[in-house]
What does this fold into?
Amino acid sequence: MSNKAKGSRVERELLSLLTENGWRCVRVAGSGVNDDSPCDLMAAKLGKKAYTIEAKSSKKTSIYITKRQIEDFILFSSTMGLIPVIAVRFNYEGWLFINPSQLEDSGKNWVISLKKAKTEGKRFSQFFE
It folds into this structure.
């Protein structure tokens, strides 16, 4: 399975999780295909906050995201008046949700480790309810 297909699969998985819990959620067309799609999902729920979501998954113990991608993601979120959140899923750990400010600078990229995601990230019910 290609990286693009894997990315689409985890985006659909997260979209299903959100909609099953009463959130209105859409996948952004072209996410991961070109530089013109600044987030993977947008989600909102009546009486709750609204979010832009960047979904990432990995078999490894760290996830790297380019600085430009995060800059574009934060700018887009701010322009739309939505809260940016990064959804990470490491194998056998389930979804964890972090604020972009929790990413660590690795020089060329931003990075989130499994250890940091588990200690500082929030589970779905903690973050969205």
In short: The first helix runs from residue 3 to 20. The helical segments are 3-20, 67-80, 114-120, 124-128. The mean pLDDT is 91. The CA atoms of residues 97 and 126 lie 9 Å apart.
